Amino acid sequence: MAVYICHNCKKSLDEELEDIRGKVGRQDVCPHCYADLHCCMNCKFHDESYTNECREDSRSFIRERDKSNFCSSFEFVKDEGEDGSEEIDAKTKLGGLFKL
Predict the structure, then answer these.
(1) Structural domain count, the chain
(2) Residue 4 DSSP SS3
(3) What domain range is 67 assigned to?
(4) What whole-number distance in Å separates Cα of residue 77 and Cα of residue 1?
(5) What are the φ and ψ backbone dihedral angles of 15, each rounded to 5 degrees?
(6) What is the pTM of this model?
(7) Cα dihedral angle (47, 53, 58, 64), rounded to 10 degrees?
(8) What pLDDT, in 10s, does the model give residues 11-35?
(9) What is the Cα–Cα distance from 96 to 61, expressed in whole angstroms?
(10) Strand partners, 54
(11) Terminal-residue alpha carbon distance, the chain
């Protein structure tokens, strides 16, 4: 089961996001810690290993990734639960490629 989690306080936002149907506005904040929700740190495309720390082709550089922004590619990342089986499978397969 997918769960929405605040990047700052790590608390669940499912009830709050259900009210707005998963669409996070630029001014929405976490009801627990008041951190901005529409920010890179909560986006599924955020990846520090990519250029501009984003897997989407972005034309603008966003300096403060934990602050609200105007990115049109924003999609709230979903935590798939405690097991993380997809991530574990992917890491296992990747590790197998580089064994000596």
Answers:
(1) 1
(2) coil
(3) 1-100
(4) 13
(5) -65, -40
(6) 0.71
(7) 120
(8) 888 776 666 555 788 899 999 999 9
(9) 35
(10) 46
(11) 37
Q: Which two tokens stand for residue 35?
A: 């951190």
Task: Evaluate whether 76 touches 22 at the Cβ level (below 8 Å).
Answer: yes
Q: Compute the distance between CA of residue 52 and CA of residue 5 in angstroms, rounded to an integer.
A: 23
Q: Which two tokens stand for residue 80?
A: 């798939």
For 41, the token pair is: 């740190």
For residues 45 and 79, the answer to whether their CB atoms sit within 8 Å is no
Q: Which own/partner pairs from 81-86 qualify as long-range (CB within 8 Å, at least 24 positions apart)?
A: 81/1, 81/2, 81/3
| Beta carbons within 8 Å of 85's beta carbon, 6+ residues apart | none
Assess contact for 41 and 5: CB atoms under 8 A: no
Q: What are phi and psi of 76, to 5 degrees?
A: -65, 130
